[in-house]
Amino acid sequence: MDGALVLWRAIHSNFKVDPVKHALSVTREQDFSAWYQAVISEADMAEESGVRGCMVIRPWGYGIWERMQKLLDDRIKATGHENCYFPLFIPLSYFEKEAEHVDGFAKEMAVVTHHRLIQKEGRLVPDPDAKLEEPLVVRPTSETVIGAAFSRWVQSWRDLPVLINQWANVVRWEMRTRMFLRTAEFLWQEGHTAHSSVDEAMEETLKMLEVYRSFAEECVALPVIAGEKPENERFPGAVATYSIEAMMQDGKALQAGTSHFLGTTFSSAQNIRFQNAEGQQELAQTTSWGMSTRMIGGLIMVHGDDDGLRVPPRVAPYQIVVVPMLRDTDEDAAVLDYCGELVTELNRQDVFREPVRALLDRRPAKAANKRWGWVKKGAPVVIEVGGRDVAGGNVSVIRRDRLYREDGKLDSQVVAKADFLGAATGMLEEIQQALFADAQARLLGNIDRSVTSLDGLKAYFGSAKKPGWALVQWAKPTGAALDKVVEWLKGEKLTLRNVPSDAEAADGLCVFTGEKAVERVLVGRSY
Amino acid sequence: MDGALVLWRAIHSNFKVDPVKHALSVTREQDFSAWYQAVISEADMAEESGVRGCMVIRPWGYGIWERMQKLLDDRIKATGHENCYFPLFIPLSYFEKEAEHVDGFAKEMAVVTHHRLIQKEGRLVPDPDAKLEEPLVVRPTSETVIGAAFSRWVQSWRDLPVLINQWANVVRWEMRTRMFLRTAEFLWQEGHTAHSSVDEAMEETLKMLEVYRSFAEECVALPVIAGEKPENERFPGAVATYSIEAMMQDGKALQAGTSHFLGTTFSSAQNIRFQNAEGQQELAQTTSWGMSTRMIGGLIMVHGDDDGLRVPPRVAPYQIVVVPMLRDTDEDAAVLDYCGELVTELNRQDVFREPVRALLDRRPAKAANKRWGWVKKGAPVVIEVGGRDVAGGNVSVIRRDRLYREDGKLDSQVVAKADFLGAATGMLEEIQQALFADAQARLLGNIDRSVTSLDGLKAYFGSAKKPGWALVQWAKPTGAALDKVVEWLKGEKLTLRNVPSDAEAADGLCVFTGEKAVERVLVGRSY
């Protein structure tokens, strides 16, 4: 039984067999929330910036984001979208045009009111003579300002579809923040498209939902449930909102990407009109879809363990890190040469249709500290090379996905260098698969399908065993009836996640109202 | 004599031979400034956003920026730097710590004062109850907030150097804006490093100057003069500022990248201290360096012509665009197949150590419109394929760097498809070189080295012939003496550009003061 399995059993059976002294200062069992912060801090991913609600994303965290950006951007471009850049600032008047949208964001908008500072009594203050005539909002999302551009770009059906995307920072003034999951400023991509028909816009909405699903599962090894959000969880101004939902190791849900069919909400507010093939004026049908640095929070809470982060190879800034074990002797030069060759040969190989990313860690620090540093950062493979390895033509291989042997000792395997070179890319593919399979088993194993009543829901989420999600049948109430359901759920600290696209048809009664059910909806705690 | 040369002669001899009807609505001769705006607009690169001072960067403009980002990022990483992300907002108090720095930026800072909007008499207004205790500045540059992070990261000499970079948006509230050259919000990268010694920090400063020079020349085909800025042109807070200066076709200078040695200015303000190897506390020596979307403005004004933009192949979003000439007949399918194969085979080839970027333009528009659209956008090679080409196994090749024959007709050459496939990457390399060589000849041919007096300067810059720059000897005055020089230059609408690193030693008298000269400095008009 490997280390990961020992841990898995320990966690999921509330049965403590763990003999291992772990690298992190706190375990998931002890305090999941403190553990999450510890991973971020001890893996040098990010830190508090001193600016309220804003974080500093450090190289390891940002490197993961760059990998995510590249892989998602490739998919966004492959589906015909082009990147643009739109202004950070949005005039207040743009928001006034769409009431529901502004209601959704007004409470958390950063507002620029001045364009100059002056000295006053030894302090810097906004210059009262440099007050803006119209205050500017720092974009919380860009439907309004991009809609204004679309209205300039679109005249005829021949100008449609418009398929664009933007990588940008956005600001939502959250009162309670948590690194990567909820920060005042965050990084994301936001896609915006305009179409000549409802069908085409819906097709786009679902196509991008599928891009998010496949990106999350294939690249981040994050199994997700794709489906439509209930009415109360829709994006402000959307006709329909779809999401991918991932399950964290504490059983909570994380919304990891959303895709919205906006109908004519923004085209009527921003006047995006076109002449159709019959010569008549029509409003365009628009969509928007976004994925953010939140995904990194999901990666941590799905793949992390008590030794830190485990990064799936496809999104790891470095996939294989080589640590030379130097002893300040004449032998060191040979060890460094041997390591250098190894890295060069690895970087020449391809994996996942890209060059392998191998690093020689030459920093002036103790080899053991470096090893544990990379374990905490979650580099998929750590190679150690000492004088003895050089003499024997070997390397010592540590796989981050199976760190410990059954006896609780670190599983460092000595193999011939040539054998490792031949097996390295296969090993990376295997690690990618193993992380996904683990998470997939956990997701599927923790969706309860047996709950048929409110008491049942209470019992499931109140049980001592860590709950996951409940997939329940419901009558899809709307308006006041839905409000009542949401209110009840709120009392239990529960939320409606989504109606899974691939759930079987309803065949029973609504768990909330007792009426005939029309579909199945996921219920869970959430981030 | 090819078309480009005809144009070149025409422009530089004030001798009008040009028989060509050009694609752009205005020529460089007619109005250089209007021509610049016309290129941006007619090549669909960018547009006014409706938000004061902010532009929308459209796919072709943003695609060029993405290429620049990738190529520069590779070089920044290859020199040992890692990417991070720091907050958009900077508390006022961070600026108060460094007087010279804040003086340099206070007049143009966007200030966030509220974090919520409310409805009042039917309008949205900042909520008076949501006023920030300490206003936040939208970053104009990040020395202060990154310095604060460095002070957390650096304790010992072992923590140094810190070598980081950030790709971000910044805001400087410029009153007079011009697309790409000067906008309230712009995109850039800013590198920030901390070192244990002055020598190492200076080495870094010059290393990054060289990275900018080689990037500009090798990737953007933009010949530049690298050198140190005079004291009056230093970055606020810098001990020394270096720049690369490019010459536009109107003879004006554009500062295309800067690298600053900051000494202990920011380490003392932000308290970046380390224990040196001898156990003593020292202030770190820091640097910063930046390059922005301004580079796109430089690309336009160096490589554009009266038919629009000409994009060097290394930074072109598409290097080869294939336009099928369809006639709504049965032949069309064969033409499309033929074009599709061509693009597939091109994309399989490598150029500049990357895959060729070829595009099949399938949009529903007339072939002639598409051709001229790509000419205006400056795609390096446009291929047209009609039924006759398919029958003959040919393609029609238009090279953007030599658009016209001597007789003023479009130079479209019919060549065998197989020959074109064999020659395509060589052609792209040749175009890259040709654009650089043209610009280099113009730069070197328009630096006057003969001026030895103020009257000479006046005469050179007042001449009917379009002036370039003057490289003059000077005594490197400082303080009030320098102010006097700068004042005089200002009266002539001239500026000091930089002291070229590779200029020969001074051997005469200062053109400004008549004292013995110590070095040579470039004087010119500038953007």
From TrEMBL, chains A, B:
GO terms for cellular component: aminoacyl-tRNA synthetase multienzyme complex; cytoplasm. Keywords: Aminoacyl-tRNA synthetase, ATP-binding, Cytoplasm, Ligase, Nucleotide-binding, Protein biosynthesis. GO terms for biological process: prolyl-tRNA aminoacylation. One of its GO terms (molecular function) is proline-tRNA ligase activity. It is found in: Cytoplasm. The keyword Magnesium does not apply. InterPro entries: aa-tRNA-synt_IIb, aa-tRNA-synth_II, aa-tRNA-synth_II/BPL/LPL, Anticodon-bd, Anticodon-bd_dom_sf, Pro-tRNA-ligase_IIa_arc-type, Pro-tRNA_ligase_II_C, Pro-tRNA_synth_II. Residues 47-312 form the Aminoacyl-transfer RNA synthetases class-II family profile domain. Its EC number is 6.1.1.15. It catalyses: tRNA(Pro) + L-proline + ATP = L-prolyl-tRNA(Pro) + AMP + diphosphate. Belongs to the class-II aminoacyl-tRNA synthetase family. ProS type 3 subfamily. Consists of three domains: the N-terminal catalytic domain, the anticodon-binding domain and the C-terminal extension. HAMAP family: Pro_tRNA_synth_type3. Catalyzes the attachment of proline to tRNA(Pro) in a two-step reaction: proline is first activated by ATP to form Pro-AMP and then transferred to the acceptor end of tRNA(Pro). Homodimer. This is Proline--tRNA ligase. It comes from Sphingobium chlorophenolicum L-1.
